[in-house]
Amino acid sequence: MNAAQPQGRRPRRLTPGRIGVYVFLISAALFFLLPLWIMVVTSLKPMEEIRLGNILALPQMLTFEAWSKAWSSACTGLECHGISVGFWNSVRILIPSVIFSIIAGAINGYALSFWRVKGANILFGVLLLGAFIPYQVFLYPLVRIFSMTGIYNSLTCIVLVHVIFGLPTMTLLFRNYYAGLPIELFKAARIDGGGFWSIFFQVILPMSTPILVVATILQVTGIWNDFIFGLTFAGRENLPMTVQLNNIVHSTQGERAYNVDMAATMLAALVPLVIYFVSGRWFVRGIAAGAVKG
Amino acid sequence: MATIPIRVPNLAASRTTARSRIRKRLPAAFALLPTALVVLVVYIGCMLWTVRLSFTSSTLLPKLDWVGLAQYSRLFANDRFLTSVENIAIFGVLFISGCLILGFLLAVFIDQNVRGEGVFRTVFLYPYAMSFVVTGVAWQWFLNPGLGLQKLVRDLGFPNFTFDWIVNQDMAIYTIVIAGLWHGAGLTMAILLAGLRGVDEDLWKAAKVDGIPTWRVYVSIVLPLLRPMVITATVLLTTGVVKLYDLVVAMTLGGPGIATEVPAKFVMDHLFERNNIALGTATATIMLIAVVSVLAPWVYARYVRPQGRHA
Q1: Are residues B75 and B40 in the same domain?
Q2: Could A21 and B137 be called an inter-chain contact, meaning their C-beta atoms sit closer than 8 Å?
Q3: Which of A41, A44, A146, B131 could disulfide-pair with A225, CB 3.0 to 4.6 Å?
């Protein structure tokens, strides 16, 4: 998985073939950048300018009004407090969900890859299969269980759901990482009389920084972008940003304010985008580690 | 995982009796207990509960009667459901093959020692960081005929240009495919590029000596070598297909009419809005059967059979 050294063919001078390569790559890049460009310029235009068409053009009258409106006064139904409500809800959901799901994954991965527990392989197999099963299969019974225990539609509920459905990926991630650590290390710690938890905290956890970073990136992006769980389990008081964005865009009363919609969309995309651009290679590593190695 | 202290030629370890070994493993088993509980209650329990509900006549509230396969026969006479199945098939085939082809091309072209490789990679993959809701809203705005792409091209001097797929019953599902491709092609590119970088340099030298054209090497030699990556990407994309829901909700709300309904949305609507639990759970069960029959062999071969850590 060492992506540092470009291989393939040797670089040559500018032949028609080389030009073709760049033409293809640049047109592909334009395709991928187009929606982002449109979102940004639309969000910076006043509605009069948007009505003229020319969706690609730079704003002639640059205005940040749509952004402030999207943040603090855009309406979803009767509530007009902007998408900031959803932003803070997402933050409140995100932090405990990420922390608890990573703790659970690390402990599971450690127990699965260093300790021989009866039935652990079956557990892991079922857990993995669970990762592929459509959520729709679990949703209704889960809603019933949570209603019975009285935590349905609460912050606890949505955090719990994120931890539960984060288990397969997180466990797989940590198990694979720990499987790559030298077993001699663990054996030495055992001979020194280390127990389950002392080896975990004193030997394994200090070596886990890379995978903790990868897991954090993966979970922050995943949980921030979640829609279906937020919609189903968070309750009206805790709706995450994605759900609120969808409500803002689809609550059509009168003319749609495309600039506000696009500003809200940009705001909802901001956290994962920042993570993506800051983390760079680590982001790719996260996807790859969750999938390719096994 | 394999043998823990058994083969270690060490006195301290060999002195460990079987019983104390088990005692020491107890905390490990204990640590796995919550997960085991979740697997039992949520992954297995809720799944069975859903399957059981699909054989009942539950509407607003769950009942535990038994109506056999009645819900399933209703389902297969339901236009909305049949459209959903057709749509997910169209989306699945086009999205997966499209992502693989586009992803492979992008990876190969990036692998030509191009300048600004990092920039291209970043640009191709960034959509994957964004949510489907964001993707859907952005593409909906871009493709709306009134002010989006169609108007843009018409204003450029092609007054008869028509691109109204998103409001066209027959074509709307293809706009979802386009948005999906935009979101997922970069992921495939990243996975395949990692594979390309693992290809032995000698192979290229040998091919050069033999005078084999580059494209031929990619198609006939490199692509077969990338098989594991292609499979991984396909599996990832397939799970994305089955979960397709947010993108449709954000982009078309299943419309125009029922033109872009998908099974996951069918389930959600029937469970939480249309008060038809039995029909919703029956659909969920069909989704479950579809996924398990496709993925069980793969998961078994890849993760369960090679036991433990030295897999």
Answers
A1: no
A2: no
A3: B131
